[in-house]
Amino acid sequence: MRILFVNPPNCGRSIPEERYGIDSIKQIFRGEPLALEALAGNLAKHDISIFDLKIETSGFLEKLQEFKPDIVGFTAMTCEANTVIKLAQQVRQVSSAHTVVGGTHASADPEFFNREEIDSIVIGLGKQSFAELVETLETGHHKDISGIAPVTPGKQLCWTPRQYTQSDLVNNVAPRYDLVKNYRCHYSLESLGLKMGLVASAAGCPYNCSFCCIAPLTGGRYLTAEIEAVLRDIQTLQETPVIRLVDANSFGNPKHAWQLANAIEAAGIKKQYLADVRSDMVVRQPELLKRWKEIGLRAVVIGFEEIDDTTLGALNKENNAATNRKAIEILHRIGLTIVGDFIISPDYTEEQFDQLEQFVRKQEIDLPMHTILTPLPGTPLYRELQSQITIHDLDYYTLINAVLPTRLDEEIFYQRYAALLHEGHSQAKV
After folding, report:
1. What is the pTM of this model?
2. Homologous superfamily of 2-166 in CATH?
3. Over the stretch 378-397, which tens digit does the pLDDT of each residue have?
């Protein structure tokens, strides 16, 4: 079958820019669509193409008419969901292809896509379930596939949740990195000039932070990839000097992380790495971080989120401010760059902005990343705050917009937010 995978364009909207002319907030990361490359890897006998609208911003209809797909598959974050519907409408205009959507928004809020433009919804890890869907479409022998929801416009979705296991990672096949060869030179973090390739060493997260939409991807399970598979994927990206481990919790299984570090060294691989870690893991496993520094770990991304225990508790972070400070001390001592994620509540006062700014400066966070607390549909936070939401257009769910009322005058809130971003990026060291 002919399968066209589509990475939607950068389509999120910006309130601070539209209302107040503050255009310094957008931060664009053009990362390769690893989820689509992984799906393609498990479809060896099919003719597959990836169309990346984040790079190739026009020509979608021409691509459809030229490639003539049997299946069109979309991935979507929340801020891309509306655009994916519009793209699916274009598919309907020129093609009879079966349209499928997956990704974080489809997994957290599948009912959003229960409309006539879409035929099937992939909920959670889709590498294996999507391959099963393709098989049923090819043979015409339709069956119930766990993790796949057939669309039923006007009626509530009905599907069988998938019980995720190691087999859903399908480690025996590599992502089709070759399908984005023509785009690879564009995959970078513009503000830092970093070109990087993406590799997954684990999937899911056992924690359930109220603002996060990762847990539904694996039903709350944490699954580690086979060591040989991670090495294979790193080595495939021969011309990419920096590898971004895209796991939500890269070293969530310390034994696996030790084995992987040792295997990378034994294989003679010379690259640099960025990884997401939890601060409590850093405190418990400082030697593991030292080991990874020896084999090329350059920076860690840590979700500090907030700077006091009360607000951390409200986010169900299962961590505390003292542990965060201890982790920062350890990472400085090891010599690892700290990319610190902080969440700005729309309820912030001037004093809280000042306190966060002082904390970041005092703790010498190398690259602070500030987002605005956003109740994403499907998360516990959304269910808690749904009645307070004032902006329901998902185009604004980019984590740089306040979709809840701000305590400060809105323009002042965004001015303070922009000032935090400016100071952090002007002093960034990665």
Report:
1. 0.94
2. Cobalamin-binding domain (3.40.50.280)
3. 999 999 999 999 999 999 99
